[in-house]
Amino acid sequence: MYKNLILKDSLFLLLILLIPVILYFKYIRGRKVSIRYPSVSHLTGLSGSWRVRLQPLIPLLRTLALLLLIIALARPQLGVRKERVVEEGIDIVLAVDISTSMLAEDFTIGGKRHNRLDIVKQVLEDFVPRRVNDRLGMVIFAGRPYTVAPLTWDQEWLVQRMAEIEIGMVEDGTAIGSAIMASLDRLKDSDAKSKVLILLTDGNNNQGEITPEVAAEAAKALGIKIYTIGAGSRDLVPYPVTTPFGTKVYQNVRIDIDDQLLTEVAEKTGGRYYRATDTEELYHIYDEIDKLEKTEIEMNQFYQYKEIFGYFIILGLLSLCLEIVLQNTVMRRLP
Questions:
Q1: Which residues contact 248 (CB under 8 A, 6 or more apart)?
Q2: Which of 9, 212, 213, 311 is most buried as measured by Cβ atoms within 10 A of its Cβ?
């Protein structure tokens, strides 16, 4: 917020040129004839009098009064500049696979192995707070989709909801088509300029009555862009298995991802497919999507003006009154 002082009727400032003329006729030409002394020092006690020293104050007060009243005529206004932010936000739904294959521990942080879902949650905890101008929602899916959070501006609440996600909350399977349709249902009535679905999975579509191809056509018709992410190594991965004795062991298994299908779904809607085989790549993918889907912000500046000529009138009249009082009391001249 910035302040700016303007004069609405600045032509009145030309009246300032009359002040010297007024002062001339008032205090020089119009001065009464008096007895002149070679020096005021001949008048005992007068040379050091405060009244003598303050005599120049009278024309100064008259000058100040005239100047302030002329400024008041020029209508000074104080303008406060404010900035209005017009935001064209993006509505984003995050669809995350929580099927049992996400238990595979082929992702690491700080050299320590973690399962895929834990890493995805950490990456999203970094991604979500950066979308301060956007609404975000979340859909999780396995054998069927489930809405964790509708579209919201409350990123903190969304992060809290993400922390509660666990594998096994939904019956197992991978229903990619159904997950897309559930996400579209959250986005279809949105008035946002841009609508985006970011879908992460680590498997093949094997559940649901709606195919991913049909769901992608629906997204295209609604103008919703889909980014797809395949999360997982292309090699054998350590997968935890519980033995009959209740202990956890690891088996090396291969979990296939349908890269071709995810590529077709993304490209059909104007999006892009990404493959993340480690934690660093996953962070990089969400960083890239964050840069691609930027919120456009338009800054409109405007001024609100307040009339302040009244203050100058008051100060001018006070100066004039002070001059009149002084001139007719303590500064009064003898005839």
A1: 240, 241, 242
A2: 212
